[in-house]
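Protocol step 4 of 5: obtain the predicted structure for the target chain.
Materials: sequence only (see below). No template structures provided, no constraints applied. The aim of this step is simply to have a reference model before the mutagenesis design in step 5. Sequence pasted as it appears in the construct record:
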Amino acid sequence: MQSSRNITEPIEGYPPTVMQRVYNATSLYLKGIDGNNYTIGILDFEGDPLISEQLNYFDRVYNLPNSNLTIIPVGSYEPNCGIISGWADEISLDVEISHVLAPRANIDLYVANPSLSLPAIVAFIDQQDRVDVLSQSFGFPESSILEDPSSIYSLIMMTDMYYALGSSEGISFLASSGDGGGSGYSYGPLGGVVYPASSPFVTAVGGT
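Step 4 output (structure tokens):
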């Protein structure tokens, strides 16, 4: 039986000037607030072998200031794996939109090997203490704690400890609230929040 619904999803891109207006960043630029003297940290996985070239091309096309991107591997660095897994696309999106909204900010791209634990990765970033804010475009449903309660609970507790430590250093941690909408990723009574957005030491970011 064929569904009676007819859903059309537009596929279109938004130039930097539109994104700047949507998030009301232009009013900040008029006050001289454009990311100068700040460093944005981005935590992603596996890598994108062409991210530097892509960002330079992106800047030329949209007449953006030259970027200051530093790639910092966490663990063994195999960026070609990111093309296969899709992380390369996420990295391009994260880096480009960060540069669009804070065009004068430095960008530190932490590229972690997925074999490492999240607490170890955050501890490394804390130890470096290079960034003012850390963006994290990933998460897992807290409802998955039912699958392996002891290990997932331990992971959350350990990671929260390092988020708290980084916060005391002056790092603001941000994390996406997920793509699941209001219902989240669970139809059960536990709800649909995702971690690390649900951490008390992390600011959850939605609607992006």
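Step 4 remarks: The mean pLDDT is 89. Residues 35-114 form one domain.
Proceed to step 5.
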